[in-house]
Amino acid sequence: MTENPRRPIPGTPRHKKERIDALAASSAPEGGAATASGGGTTTALREAGRVAGGEGVSLWMSAWRRLRHDWVFLVGAAIVVLFVLLAIIAPFIAPHDPAGRVLIDQVHRQSNPVPGPQPGHPLGADYLGRDLLSRLMVGARQTLIVGVLATLGGLFGGMALGTLAGAFGGWVDSVVMRVVDVLLSIPSLLMAFSIAAMFRSPSQWTVILAIAIVQVPVFARLLRGSMLAQRHSDHVLAARALGVRKGTIVFRHMLPNAMGPVIVQATLVLATAIIDAAALSFLGLGNPDDRAPEWGQMLGNAQSYFDSHPHLAVYPALCIIVVALGFTLVGESLRESLDPKSRR
């Protein structure tokens, strides 16, 4: 008796292949059933393993998809972008020289020491006859420089301490965290004031250095926590099992994956740095040369005229509040979109 050539013998490779094809065809979705051929089986298996909703996206791309529909983030981003653009182009579009005493004759002639709004000077001038609008516009650049450099200084210092504590642990972690705890126990503005007062002559760089030192423990503690969470992750354990050097694990596997919360915190710290810089300048610890205007410096110089001419202090104060609000809105929106526990 001869075997049917169309019916494979049980146990042969052909029989096994047809059984696999039959199982794949029965498990395929409606309208996309696999054929008995090898190509159809591959297509069915590929479709069966695909996640509904399309290809996966990264954490930052997923956050951006939520942020672009968040009006809080959009308002904050608009404020930040306008502030940065103004800081870049202000010296070129300012109607007058911010240090030029263009209305000094009116200061000497009138009993009113502060010229008010007039054609060509929509906000008037200060007590030295300098155009107030031009000084506010150019002051945005100095404010941005102080805030960004102070934030970067605190970020790099905190990254150094946080990486040491989170990567090595043990006594290194204990020593670094005790130093951080001592720094955090002192009010930030008081410590910044004390650091700035230690210098013989105040300047813009003393303000930047004081604020940067204040922000170091904030970044150090945050990065240390993120690094400790990364130490026991699967990809780090796999790298250790493969014999990858510890330095490579820290800087190529742990640190890049721990930077998300730190970047979000940097946007919030930038708003705080601008406010602290204004506070130090208001207290007289900023740049004494008012030919390069800065909003906090303008606020401090206006305190003698606040009773009679409050607009000299109101305008720079509003600028500081609006810019700090913009960075705060951006930072809070980023934190909510990246943190699974607080996503809306």
Structure description:
It is elongated and about 115 Å long. The protein folds into two domains: 1-56; 63-342, MetI-like (MetI-like fold, Orthogonal Bundle), CATH 1.10.3720. It has 344 residues and is an all-alpha fold. α4 (71-93) packs across α6 (132-168) and α6 runs antiparallel to α11 (246-282). It has helices spanning 13-27, 38-48, 59-67, 71-93, 104-109, 132-168, 170-184, 188-197, 204-231, 234-241, 246-282, 295-301, 311-338. The longest helix has 37 residues, at 132-168. Mean pLDDT is 79; it is low at 28-38.
Main beta-sheet annotation: none
Query: Distance between termini?
Result: 73 Å
**Overall number of domains:** 2
Radius of gyration, CA atoms, in whole angstroms: 31 Å
Mean pLDDT across residues: 79
Briefly, what CATH class of the largest domain? Mainly Alpha
Defining key terms:
344 residues; mainly alpha; MetI-like fold; 2 domains
Would you kindly provide a brief summary of this structure?
With 344 residues, this protein is an all-alpha fold.
Which helices and strands occur, and which strands form pairs?
Elements: H1 13-27, H2 38-48, H3 59-67, H4 71-93, H5 104-109, H6 132-168, H7 170-184, H8 188-197, H9 204-231, H10 234-241, H11 246-282, H12 295-301, H13 311-338
